């Protein structure tokens, strides 16, 4: 549904019973190159009669052009007598998204759609799954000139399927080669995390309120050949281009990936820490001639600019399986080739709270080397207790007391709230499939409290009365900032 930032709808008991254990998703990221794509979308989305995915998600960058025939998708649907489809098409905010809706047909609906300048993010849900998507949240952040202009930035569409929260992010990061531009890309990611906190009920980032985050886009990370051959990096551009082109021709995928900036930044926890990526054994997708084959333009070193990464709540990493990852090389209208990934995502049926009867008690929590937020060199941290699951029975998120002027707070039982759960003792196995988020903030008496990071704890071992320990890194905007450790138990009232 395009327009509102948030939406909800009730699920009937019948719908709760029908949700499959897994949903399938086709994720496509493409820098469209501000040129009108071909009318036939087979090369982008696959043959229409073989589309089987429950969700089709498109993250588009540089998607702004003057269509040769505006409104053609609406008229074509009307001519075919598809009134319902023409209505769906008309609701979409851009010519190309309308063309996608026409191609997908009436079986799919644009469930969550957002636009930021030349960027578009659209989640199309098949009719068999759309009825289970009962809430969505949209947010966006521009990171262009002066951190305002929307030629660069990111969009978030967070949807709840049954009781599983999946957040999709599409972004276009700073361009060009070199260390300074790489750092700007890292900064852009952090700004997108920060600027889209509206999807969280307490103002944490998207990882604190999602089971799974799938991040796609023209991330613009380039080849740093010095990671493979320091001497080659000192050569003129023409020689570097020739050597990297030889690697591509020889299909030396491991060497190409070794030279990729992004994989190093993730590995070293300088950006998107805890995110994963599929096997990149294919040709770089930038910068290419606008032809149906792969011909690289000599102005730029071939690079894996177009990416799809994902992360999950700790302990549920196997709930997301990438089943394929490939460039769509026959798409010919841009200087980027699209990248398509397909996924199977384990989801859980929506459940109704049973009235409570259980309480989650934290017996102690210790922080170490947390994020410095104040001029004093310390912080005043407190913790909200939240969950992406329907776990907590409270009108407002339970909150701890505040510890002043420290990066190593110690919270004793008197500092920590009892967290009332929405389920009773008979539902303990269901509770064990859920998680709790500890969302840290720095208290400020004169301005808005600052987000310090979060920890997500899976409750898989939470038998009633058992005392469990945890020790987890705190992540803020995709970066590690200290740790939280402690003990908790689940008790019956």
Strand content: 25-35%
Low-confidence stretches: 1-5, 9-17
Largest sheet: 7 strands, mixed
Structural class: alpha+beta
How far the N terminus sits from the C terminus, by CA atoms, comes to: 42 Å
Determine the fraction of residues in helical runs and give it as a percent range.
10-25%
Strands, count:
21
Describe the global form.
globular
What value does the Rg take, in angstroms?
A: 24 Å
In what order do the strands lie side by side in the largest sheet?
A: 1-6-7-8-9-11-10
How would you state the average pLDDT, rounded? 94
* DSSP summary: helix tally: 11
**Oligomeric nature of the chains:** single chain
Characterization of this structure:
By secondary structure, the chain is an alpha+beta fold. The chain has eleven helices and 21 strands. The protein is globular.
Features:
493 residues, alpha+beta, single chain, 32% strand
Summarize the structure.
With 493 residues, the chain is α+β, with helices and mostly antiparallel strands. 18% of the residues lie in helices and 32% in strands. It has eleven helices and 21 strands.
